[in-house]
Structure formats: structure tokens, C-alpha cells
Design brief:
It is a single chain. The protein has one domain: Up-down Bundle (Growth Hormone, Chain: A). Helices cover 80% and strands 0% of the residues. It contains 17 helices and no strands. The chain is globular, with a radius of gyration of 20 Å.
């Protein structure tokens, strides 16, 4: 892939994924404007992620059989209309519905990621996937900064209007620039969806990395869903604009995590995954101090995002190597699990914060991140035992992360 095309994919993925996260720094303002509690308002985030999960399950597999040059711009156009509807929502319920539709159509990003992996050569695939994923992750994180600054000046509804306009512009650019594709095998829609289930049932690497990814993303949402409420309350009492600027901290972590793709190309994905999961657990523990110490909060956010995004990039690099012809479906299986974890994380965070404040949120984050690290450790112990039992087998010589 030419650098310009890689950059286009990265920007498009970032703009698409950002649609899910505009609301996070706006939750206190939305709650006041629409007269809703923090728990109900947090469902705006959950609804977007559930919609995203539905889109992953029902739309993304089509990337293996449809022409993506036409498919992706069309989906993004619908997402833009949903964002305009969110801007006009008179109640929290209507906002939830609009954000759900935007979430369903924002899966365009997850069609573009395996498309980029297909266009890339074998020796640059990790780097390309890492770069494109960094663009996606930056979109997720910078969406908070973007929405916080605009809401401070013009209110939360303007955020969705501007977001819709940006999505329409990106859709038009993709319609002009996306490359043509070779004709692919025809398969019925029901068989296509069934093959996703078959892949999940028959590919242990896909199941393992999906579970680890889901737990990591649950931790991510625990932090970011509750952060706005912490920063709006004592002792910080920050405005929406300042809260949005915290997205820049996560962006720093996402940029650093992009280098994990290069490490994957060199065969170090197993150790990067384990080290990154350990970093996430330590960063969540550091966030406990962040309730009253700004330095700990800042450090915890940067380190947590670095670890979580590095895990995600390693996961996708590994699953895309299973079968090039089914990359969209492999990505569907992985990302559905990933966003189920995220939805569970954000939903339980609202309950945790209402019942126990920031300390309860930290405990919840430790549970999710600790479970992810524990699952990796168990898989590595099992791999070592298999390798010891069959030292001369192919399984002992292959990349342990794929065993």
C-alpha cells in the first residue's frame, strides 16, 4: 500500500469510530439538559456499542463478498444521517435510538481494517494494520477532545451536527479513492453469517484473542465512561472543554501502541501481548490514586491506553493471519466479542459509579483487566505443557501465540 492510501484508511477509520464516543465527555451536560440520571445517561454510550456490535455481526461479514468501494461510503452516509438525528433528539430515549443507528453504521471502520490487511504485502501487514488501527484509536480518543471543546462553545447538539458533516465528507472522498477489487466467490448471506460461527467454533486462536480483547475493551470503557463524572465533580470540577482535552492523553498512548505492529512483524506478538496486559492492570491500580492526585490520573490514563491498544493491535495481526479469504468474517467474530466486552464494561460502570463512586470503578477495572491477564497466563501455561509433551512436533516450533 502507498503511504497516502494507508493515511486515507487511517483517517476514515478514525472518523467512523469517533461516532461512538462523542458523548463521553458530554454525559454531565446531556444529563442536565435532558433531565436524566448518570446511570441512564451512560446508556447512550452502551447503546452505541450495542449498535456497533449488531453492525459487526450483520454487516461486516459482507465485506468478504460485496464491493467495498461502494459499500463503505453508503454505510457512512447513513451514519451521518443518524448523527443529525441525534443532534435533534428531544429526550434521552431518542438520543439512544439515534446513537444506536450511528453505531450500527460506524462499522465501516471494521470493513476497512481487513481491506487494508488484504492490500498490504505480507512483510508490511503488521505495520499497515498498526497504522490504520492507530488512526481508528485516535478517532476514538480525540472524539472526546473534539466534542468537549465544541460543547463548551456551542452545546452538545452541535457536536453531532459537525460530526455528521465530517462523516459525509469522508464518505465522498472514499467513494473517489478506494481501489477496485477482484471478483470474489459468491456465497449466500445465511451461509456467510454461519461461517462466522463456524470460524469461532473451529479456531482456538480466534476464541482466545477475542476473549482477551473483550476484557481489555471492557477495562477501556470502565475508565472512559466514568472519567467525565469524576472530572466534573470535586476536587477537579472541570468544564466540558477541559474534560475533552483528556482525550489527548489517550491519544499519546494510542500513538505509542502503533509500534506494536512493527514488533508483530518481527515475531514478538506473544510477549508484547502479555507485557501489555500486565501494564493495563498496573495502570488501573494507579488510577485509584487519581481520585485526588492529578499526576496519577494522567499517568494511569496514558499507560492504560498504551497497553489496551497494543493488545488490540496484536490480536488483529494474529487473527488476520488465519485465513486471508475470510478476514472480514474473522474480524467480525473478534470484534463482536470485543464490543460485547465494551458494552458490558460501560453498562456496569454506570451502576458501579452510582453505588460506590470512583473506588468502585477502579475495582471493576481491576476485575476486567486482571481476568484478561489471567486468561493469557493460562493459555501460555497450556502452550508450554503442550510444547514440553511434544518437543519435536510442529506445534512446538510454531509461534506459541497461535497454538
Amino acid at each position: 500500500m502507498a503511504p497516502g492510501m494507508v493515511a486515507l484508511f487511517a483517517v476514515a477509520c478514525g472518523v467512523s469510530a469517533a461516532n461512538l464516543y462523542y458523548a463521553q465527555p458530554l454525559l454531565p451536560q446531556i444529563a442536565r439538559d435532558l433531565h436524566a440520571g448518570s446511570g441512564r445517561t451512560a446508556l447512550v454510550i452502551t447503546a452505541g456499542q450495542i449498535g456497533y456490535g449488531l453492525g459487526l455481526a450483520l454487516i461486516v461479514p459482507l465485506g468478504d463478498i460485496l464491493v467495498r468501494r461502494r459499500m463503505v461510503p453508503g454505510i457512512l452516509a447513513i451514519a451521518a444521517l443518524a448523527l443529525f438525528a441525534a443532534a435533534a433528539a428531544p429526550t434521552v430515549t431518542m438520543l439512544i435510538v439515534a446513537v444506536s443507528v450511528a453505531g450500527i453504521c460506524s462499522v465501516a471502520a471494521q470493513i476497512l481494517v481487513p481491506f487494508a490487511a488484504t492490500l498490504a504485502s505480507d512483510d508490511q501487514r503488521g505495520q499497515v494494520v498498526g497504522t490504520v488501527m492507530s488512526g481508528l484509536l485516535l478517532g476514538i480518543l480525540l472524539a472526546r477532545t473534539f466534542s468537549g471543546l465544541i460543547a463548551q462553545v456551542a452545546g452538545w447538539r452541535t457536536v453531532y451536527v459537525v460530526g455528521g458533516v465530517v462523516v459525509l465528507l469522508v464518505a465522498a472522498l472514499l467513494n473517489r479513492r478506494l481501489p477496485d477489487e477482484h471478483r470474489r466467490a459468491s456465497i449466500s448471506y445465511s451461509a456467510l453469517l454461519g461461517s462466522v460461527v463456524h470460524l469461532m467454533a473451529t479456531q482456538p486462536l480466534l476464541r482466545l484473542r477475542s476473549a482477551i480483547g473483550g476484557l481489555a475493551f471492557a477495562t477501556f470503557n470502565v475508565i472512559w465512561t466514568s472519567l467525565a463524572f469524576l472530572l466534573a465533580a470535586s476536587p477537579y470540577r472541570y468544564s466540558e472543554a477541559v474534560i475533552g482535552l483528556f482525550g489527548l492523553l489517550g491519544a499519546a498512548g494510542a500513538l505509542a501502541a502503533s509500534f506494536s505492529g512493527r514488533l508483530a512483524d518481527r515475531g514478538y506478538e506473544r510477549w508484547v501481548s502479555g507485557g501489555s496486559l500486565a501494564i493495563v492492570v498496573g495502570s488501573v491500580a494507579l488510577l485509584a490514586i487519581g481520585a485526588h492526585q492529578l499526576w496519577a490520573l494522567v499517568a494511569g490514563i496514558v499507560i492504560a491506553d498504551l497497553g489496551i491498544q497494543a493488545v488490540h493491535i496484536q490480536n488483529q495481526q494474529l487473527i488476520f493471519g488465519i485465513d486471508p479469504a475470510t478476514r472480514s468474517r474473522l474480524n467480525t467474530g473478534y470484534m463482536v466479542t470485543y464490543f460485547i466486552g465494551g458494552a458490558v464494561g460501560s453498562a456496569t460502570t454506570g451502576v458501579a459509579y452510582e453505588s460506590g463512586g470512583w473506588p468502585a470503578v477502579v475495582v471493576l477495572g481491576l476485575c476486567y483487566s486482571g481476568a484478561g491477564l489471567g486468561l493469557w497466563v493460562v493459555s501460555e501455561v497450556a502452550r508450554s505443557r503442550r510444547s514440553s509433551a511434544r518437543p519435536d512436533s510442529l506445534d512446538a516450533r510454531r509461534d506459541p501465540a497461535t497454538s
